[in-house]
Amino acid sequence: MINEQNIRILLKNRPNGWPTEDDFEIEVSQIPSIKEGEILLETMWLSLDPYMRGRMNDAKSYADPVQIGAPMVGGAVAKVVESRSPMFVKNDIVEGRIGWQKYAVSSGIELRTVDKSLGPIQTAIGVLGMPGLTAYFGFLDVCEPRPGDIVVVSAASGAVGQVVGQIAKIMGCTVIGTAGSDEKIKFILDELGFDYGINYKSEDICESLDKFCPDGIDIYFDNVGGELTDAVMDRLRVGARISVCGQISQYNNSQLQLGPRNIGSLVRSQAKMEGFLVHAYSNKYPEGLDKMSKWIKEGKLKYKEDIVKGIENAPKTFIGMLNGENFGKTLIKVSDD
Ligand SMILES: NC(=O)c1ccc[n+]([C@@H]2O[C@H](COP(=O)([O-])OP(=O)(O)OC[C@H]3O[C@@H](n4cnc5c(N)ncnc54)[C@H](OP(=O)(O)O)[C@@H]3O)[C@@H](O)[C@H]2O)c1
Fold this sequence. Notes:
Layout: E1 6-11, E2 24-29, E3 39-47, H1 51-55, E4 75-83, E5 93-97, E6 103-106, E7 112-113, H2 130-143, E8 150-153, H3 159-170, E9 174-179, H4 182-190, E10 196-199, H5 205-212, E11 217-222, H6 226-233, E12 236-244, H7 264-269, E13 272-275, H8 285-297, E14 305-309, H9 314-322, E15 329-333
Parallel strand pairs: 8-9, 8-11, 9-10, 11-12, 12-13, 14-15
Antiparallel strand pairs: 1-2, 3-4, 3-6, 3-15, 4-5, 5-7
Helix pairs in contact: 2-3, 2-8
């Protein structure tokens, strides 16, 4: 018998523009009981990701919106604390879409057992989970890098961007990262080995791009969209590849900005621009995990996590992440390991 209560973070309102903490409700309730075939999970680590902003809208997308009054969606690492299922036993560590809740009941169907030999368990929702795999396949498969390519990656200190830039270095490319603070730029240069960094908040992006890539850009890994992407599009080399991973600069606009405005650049440069969703690569995840865990063990791939304790801090931390207050992969430590 667990001598505790459950905490769930529910969607209270659909935000118009930037979300606020009032759009979430922190609900304290009894820990649910399980039926035959079910397991009870205690969340240990919760991942906060930009896509969750889209789930707060009642809009057509590649996934259904979160219903008002329902727990926010989210990937998490959890411990099996009770099992009435043949699939899992007590103390198994699993990863899956468990949501913003301390305790959750699951059938276990969409959970995977975390391979602790690959790295610390929270990496299963970070560098060795959805964000890392996004970087791996979104860069290697969509951008098809070649040694010597000039690569620009936006949101370069974040969960996806930091991995993209390092894989680009492993592939022999020259890498320019953009990020929103001098501290983040110092990190990608000194710790991750990027060649150049641009603080897009304090520098003239066009001038800096012209300085660091005077002959143009072969690959753009686009995490943000907006003006940064406009600036890159004007500097594409012939045969450039653009991986449209995300458009975070647009997620909190109450009015959709129409575009793209400079698509003629694709004609001039005979470039390829391709959007992708990481889930499309799910049958190849083992390949990506195997490769990246080896790179981590060899010291070729580093990762920075931004850890906040306590599930009740998830709304504030999530809003901060959308605003660039995170430094690395945003994680909530829900319970002790
Ligand atoms: N296609 C897929 O399957 C897939 C999967 C995962 C993630 N994604 C996308 O990948 C992108 C990065 O996700 P992540 O998990 O790695 O997040 P993250 O980079 O760890 O965090 C988000 C970062 O976005 C930056 N940002 C926010 N507003 C911005 C703006 N107006 N202009 C420029 N940068 C801005 C902030 O960094 P700064 O301080 O640098 O501004 C913030 O730290 C997101 O667009 C996300 O939706 C796509």
